[in-house]
Amino acid sequence: MIIKRKIYQKMLNWKRTSNGASALLIKGARRVGKSFICEQFGKNEYKSLIIIDFANVSGEITDVFEHESTNLDFFFNKISTYYGVKLHKRESLIVFDEVQRYPKARQLIKYLVADGRYDYVETGSLISLKQHVKDIVIPSEEESIEMHPLDFEEFLWAMDDQTLVPYVRDCFEQVKPLGPALHRKIMNDFRQFLLVGGMPQAVLEYANSKDFAAVDLVKQRILVLYRNDISKFARQYESRVNAIYDNIPGQLAKKEKMYKLSSISKDARMRRYEDAFMWLSDAMIVNPCFNTTDPGIGLALSSDNSTQKIYMADTGLLISHAFRDNEYIDNELYRAILFDKLGINEGMIMENAVAQLLRSSGHRLYFYSRYDSSNRQNTMQIDFIITKDKKVSPIEVKSSGYREHSSLDKFRSKFSSKLGNAYVLYQKDVVVKDGIIHLPLYMGMFL
Question: Strands across the sheet with 380-382, in order?
Fold first, then answer.
């Protein structure tokens, strides 16, 4: 079974528009599917393909990069001979897989692109770490795109459902309800997506076995890989990265989801932990969400990077991470999600899922939080802020039985001149009430 990914179309667009004038850099977390999509792309779109995996490369190949790169004719002849692949001018793709493990190959891209014979795709995780770029000139001939875990639509494709999302999108655009039967079906599909997540290996296991226990084993192996990466690459601040990483489920389970360093240590300070937060973000293991103090079109301009929420990049991994020391059978979140009885864990899971959907759609994550002890009218918390059509759109994630949206009302009043649509994402069907568009959680992928 081959999992269909939306990034493939972006790769096609790059190939057509670049026509050899740039290399493509695909950034993403480990096990998100970068190597597989490159192999699929190379086999389908080119006459021949060579993948150089720098996580497991021979000394003979690094020797070629070290000593033969000034003579590109000889360089290509040696690589072609070593891999047993004939290279064809303008019809061959060379992939530098996990290029951060051998930065000199990335620096060489400038000259390979200028040579113009072949196309080049690089893949990398932790691509911006100082240790991976400190001795090289980063080529300006790179175009970069991010690869995230499967989104909900890609998950449905993997479940052999190609027709559902176009109709759901039509209902979203027309702001009309789907009706009880269809909405119930999609929410059941969405609950499966929450449990499985979007890591390709986990999705493949679920598509083949429909066994949550087997899926959980796959996810636990990925979590172990991440922990090993922390030990291997987060040098000098490994313990701080692990402390933040281990504490993510506990922070998200609280009503106030802003990450509090005091939960790690009463003496912890941001200046000491800043590199650790950046490491997890650069590894794309987490989706950081920053407080924007003055919501406007340029949310980053008023971003307070010292105040942030930390979501896991994949909700399925969050569920396994929260119970990392227990067997699958003891993971109560599986039962709670399947039977729609999340209770106190609902906010943690649903907010993380919305964060994942928004990031997959290309949004950077921001929220709005203000506390005013002298005037409660100025105190408000908005889960997410996005910009659409040059306006600011606040998003609140609510439980199905919520009764009020006081923060949303305050925000709409305070920032009325900047405001676009206001949204509540919850588990019920589409409705417009009190001037606010209420959408089922799965429609977060369209925002």
Answer: 303-312, 286-292, 365-370, 380-382
